[in-house]
Amino acid sequence: ETTLTQSPAFMSATPGDKVNISCKASQDIDDDMNWYQQKPGEAAIFIIQEATTLVPGIPPRFSGSGYGTDFTLTINNIESEDAAYYFCLQHDNFPRTFGQGTKVEIK
Amino acid sequence: QVQLQESGPGLVKPSETLSLTCTVSGGSISSYYWNWIRQPPGKGLEWMGNIYYSGSTNYNPSLKSRVTISVDTSKNRFSLNLSSVTAADTAVYYCAREVRGNVDSWGQGTLVTVSS
Question: Which of A73, A94, B41, B63 could form a disulfide with B67 if both were Cys (CB 3.0 to 4.6 A apart)?
Fold first, then answer.
């Protein structure tokens, strides 16, 4: 089973900040990493696929990087509407596994 | 745009079977994989398993002996059964669509509490 170690668990940002969220895999998963945003009571939104590809309709301030075991979700010029829970998911192998999630607060 | 909606009892007694259904609207259930994922209160997400529209399944080994996922293409829905539940199975349960390996659409989730 591939363990995903996501950090930080919580972060507080000011509008306009650049935010980085890390997800490290316990084994090589190529680029089979996705990122999601979730707000309370809402369905999760798919924001990054295959580690680096922005899902259509997602604002370009979101970006993803990485390959193999180290992955990063970056939010440039963060906005108040970006306050949410973010998590990573690997689909390289079974069972699918998730990072523990990051709660992003906007001051 | 496809939409997924979970439904089922919000309260299940210990040792009983938890049963949930996910109804798919705005698209056909055919040609994709369909997943069940859960999140216990205050904890991370856990993938439970998935099913192809044709009926082939993959399950998380941690749950394999207790979980069954089925699909009803005529009603455009799929279901989860989790047997012998305990308080540890209290969680928000999500259904989700998977396209070419990518989980791209999620339901809003439904809270199931296991308690007598």
Answer: B63
Whose CA is closest to A88, among A104, A100, A76? A100
Q: Which two tokens stand for residue A103?
A: 């709660």
Q: How many CB atoms lie within 10 A of CB B100?
A: 10
Length of chain A: 107
Which residue is closest to A101 within chain B, CA to CA?
A: B44
If phi over 0 gives left and psi between -120 and 50 gives alpha, with beta otherwise, what is residue A4? beta
Q: Residue A85 in contact with residue A11, Cβ under 8 Å? A: no
pLDDT digits (tens, 9 = 90+) for A28-82: 999 999 999 999 989 999 999 999 999 999 999 999 999 999 999 999 999 999 9
The alpha-carbon gap from A18 to the nearest alpha carbon of chain B, in Å, equals 25
Residue A57's alpha-carbon distances to A45, A95, B92, in angstroms, are 11, 29, 27
Read off the tokens for B77.
């829905």
pLDDT reported for residue A103: 97
Distance of CA A10 to the CA centre of its chain: 13
Amino acid B31: pLDDT: 83
Residue pLDDT, tens place only, B50-72 = 999 999 999 999 997 899 999 99
Determine the Cα–Cα distance for residues B28 and B11; give it in Å rounded to an integer.
30
Q: Which of residues 67-106 of B touch A (CB under 8 A)?
A: 94, 96, 98, 101-106
